[in-house]
Specification:
With 206 residues, the chain is α/β, with parallel strands linked by helices. The chain is globular. The protein is built from 6 helices and 8 strands; from the N terminus they run H-E-H-E-E-E-E-H-E-H-E-H-E-H.
Length: 206
């Protein structure tokens, strides 16, 4: 469906072109979405930053998100979390582990400045795709509290049921494809390489 993240980003930028020249703040959910957000910010003549959120991993299934946490510590728990053995004690331990990762990434990614204030801005949140939508839910929730002028969620691909979850949290949702049969985000990319912390830091500096 997409050759790589650059291909997906170019297609998303075309759908977001109405925001060109409007000082949009383009926020990436690290790490995979950062190259995409950089390209989109350039096309829209906007500003690039990251929004730091982390998924809460299911016990013994680290790829499965049973919730998420944002930089403030606000936590979203999916209604199916208990089915996978995530009790309150496990969730608290996992939350603290992910908050530690968030603090480390903030220190790495923006060591000499605070996050860019989204208040009064058109804010466009980018991810390379949604599965359960957990991290996007936390990102949108946290950003809404900071009073942006408009909050946009933009992704290349998502299951239809996940789109329904995020629509209430954003003023606009832009999604290129919503296939009914969905296993993982990576299945919709011919090339889906891992993005390193070093790459993220270079992109945020340049």
């Amino acid at each position: 469906m997409f050759h790589d993240r650059d291909d997906a980003a170019r297609q998303l930028a075309d759908k977001l072109i109405e925001y060109r020249g409007k000082n949009a703040l383009v926020l990436a959910i690290p790490r995979g979405a950062v190259p995409m957000a950089k390209l989109i910010a350039q096309r829209l003549e906007g500003e690039l930053d990251v929004v730091l959120v982390r998924k809460l991993r299911a016990p013994d299934q680290p790829e499965l998100a049973i919730g998420s946490v944002d930089e403030s510590g606000w936590t979203y728990i999916a209604d199916f979390a208990a089915v996978y053995g995530a009790d309150s004690r496990y969730i608290e331990s996992e939350k603290q582990a992910q908050l530690q990762t968030i603090r480390q990434r903030r220190a790495q990614y923006t060591p000499v400045r605070a996050p860019i204030d989204p208040a009064g801005r058109i804010v466009i949140v980018i991810d390379d795709g949604l599965a359960t939508g957990a991290t996007m839910i936390s990102a949108l929730h946290g950003l809404r509290a900071k009073r942006p002028a408009k909050l946009v969620c933009a992704v290349p691909v998502s299951p239809p049921e996940t789109l329904r979850k995020v629509r209430d949290l954003a003023d606009e949702v832009v999604c290129l494809e919503a296939p009914p049969y969905f296993q993982a985000v990576g299945q919709f990319y011919a090339h889906f390489y891992q993005v390193s912390d070093e790459e993220v830091m270079d992109m945020l500096k340049s």
